[in-house]
Specification:
This protein is an alpha/beta fold and 337 residues long. It contains twelve helices and twelve strands. The longest helix has 17 residues.
Length: 337
C-alpha cells in the first residue's frame, strides 16, 4: 500500500477521533484559548468541523489527488504557520503530507497546541506518519517553503527564502458584493462571513460593495444573532476604541452595537468594523475589484462575479480542498519539487 492510499484510508478514523469528546481534547482547547483568547471553544469546534467536512472526506480527497502526479522524491517542506484562526495552517500541512513530502512545521505562538493535537490523533491511526512531521523553532535543512504572514513579515520572507522554491503569502481579505435584492436569509448568511472567528481570517468579509441608495436599515436585525461577540473582552475593547476614534474625529459611521459600518475605500477594516463602498455600475465595480486584486482573498455574492471564483453567502470560511489561498495551487507547487 503506497503512502497516499494509506493516508486516504485513515481519514474516516481520523474524523472519528477528532469528533470524540475526551478530557485531553478539552484540555487542549483550554490551553489554546488561554494562550490566545480569540480562540473560543465554539470557534475551535467550527474550525475542526470545517476540516473534517471539507478536507477529510476520503471520496473528495481521492478525486482531488487524482489531478496531481505523485512525487518521485520526498522533500522537506518548511511550513510557517499563521495564528489568526484556529488550525489555519492545516490545509498546507495536509497538502504537504498528501503530496508525499515531509513537513517541517514552525508553529505560530498564537496557535501552538491545536495542530500538534490533530497530528497526534492522526498518528494514532497511521503511526508511520510521525516520521513525516517535525516541529522547529529555527528553520534549517529544508528544500522548499510555504509561509503565511503579515505584509510586514512577508518582506523578511522574501529576503530569507528567495533562494528556495516557495509560496509566500501576505495579508488579504474577503469582500462581498450586494445588489440590494438579497433576502434577509442571504444577509444573515453574510453576517457569518463577517463575524465568524471575530473577522480575523483572510477569507472573512471586511468590506461590502453596495449600489447607490442602498438601505442599511435591515442590518440591525442582520447582525443581532452575533450580539454575544460584544461580550468578549478583546472584541469589546476594539469596538469601544473604534467608536471613540470615529466620534473624536467626526468620522461618519453606522453603529450597530456589535459592529460599526464605515464608508471607506480600503479593503481591510479594523476588528469590529466593516467598510462599505457604493458602486454605480457593474463596469466600475469590476474596475475597482481588478485594481485591488492583490488585496482580495475571495468575493462573496449571490451570483458569480466575472473573473472571480464564486463564494456563496455564508461559505467564505468553508473552502474546498482545491480552493487555495491567494489563488496559488499548493499541490501543483509541491508536485514540481
Amino acid at each position: 500500500m503506497d503512502n497516499r492510499t494509506e493516508l486516504l484510508k485513515s481519514l474516516p478514523d481520523l474524523c472519528e477521533l477528532l469528533a470524540a469528546d475526551t478530557s485531553l481534547k478539552e484540555e487542549v482547547f483550554n490551553k489554546a484559548q488561554a494562550f490566545n483568547p480569540w480562540f473560543t471553544h465554539a470557534f475551535i469546534k467550527e474550525a475542526i468541523t470545517s476540516i473534517t467536512d471539507r478536507f477529510l472526506v476520503e471520496e473528495y480527497c481521492r478525486l482531488w489527488l487524482a489531478t496531481y502526479p505523485a512525487s518521485n522524491e520526498s522533500k522537506k517542506v518548511a511550513v510557517i504557520m499563521a495564528g489568526n484562526l484556529p488550525l489555519v495552517g492545516f490545509h498546507d500541512l495536509f497538502c504537504v503530507l498528501m503530496s508525499g513530502h515531509q513537513a517541517v512545521v514552525k508553529l505560530s505562538d498564537k496557535d501552538a497546541h491545536l495542530l500538534p493535537w490533530v497530528v497526534e490523533q492522526w498518528t494514532h491511526v497511521v503511526p508511520s506518519l510521525a516520521k513525516s512531521i517535525s516541529y522547529t523553532s529555527r528553520l534549517e535543512h529544508f528544500d522548499a517553503v510555504i509561509a503565511t504572514g503579515s505584509n510586514n513579515s512577508s518582506r523578511y520572507f522574501d529576503y530569507y527564502f528567495s533562494a528556495y522554491p516557495h509560496i509566500l503569502r501576505r495579508n488579504r481579505n474577503g469582500i462581498a458584493v450586494l445588489t440590494g435584492e438579497e433576502s434577509m436569509d442571504d444577509l444573515k448568511q453574510l453576517a457569518k462571513d463577517i463575524f465568524q472567528y471575530f473577522g480575523l481570517g483572510c477569507r472573512n468579509v471586511s468590506k461590502i460593495y453596495v449600489p447607490q441608495g442602498y438601505d442599511f436599515k435591515p442590518w440591525e436585525e442582520v447582525v443581532a444573532t452575533w450580539a454575544y461577540l460584544s461580550d468578549h473582552n478583546k472584541y469589546k475593547n476594539n469596538l469601544e476604541y473604534n467608536f471613540a476614534l470615529y466620534i473624536i474625529n467626526s468620522i461618519p459611521h453606522i453603529n450597530l452595537g456589535n459592529i460599526i459600518l464605515k464608508e471607506d475605500d480600503a479593503i481591510a477594516s479594523r476588528i469590529g468594523s466593516l467598510h462599505y463602498s457604493y458602486y454605480n455600475s457593474t463596469a466600475t465595480l469590476q474596475d475597482d475589484l481588478h485594481a485591488k486584486r492583490e488585496e482580495i482573498q475571495c468575493v462573496v455574492s449571490g451570483s458569480p462575479i466575472e473573473g472571480w471564483d464564486h463564494v456563496a453567502f455564508g461559505e467564505s470560511q468553508l473552502p474546498a480542498l482545491n480552493q487555495y489561498a491567494d489563488g496559488v495551487d499548493t499541490m501543483a507547487f509541491l508536485s514540481t519539487l
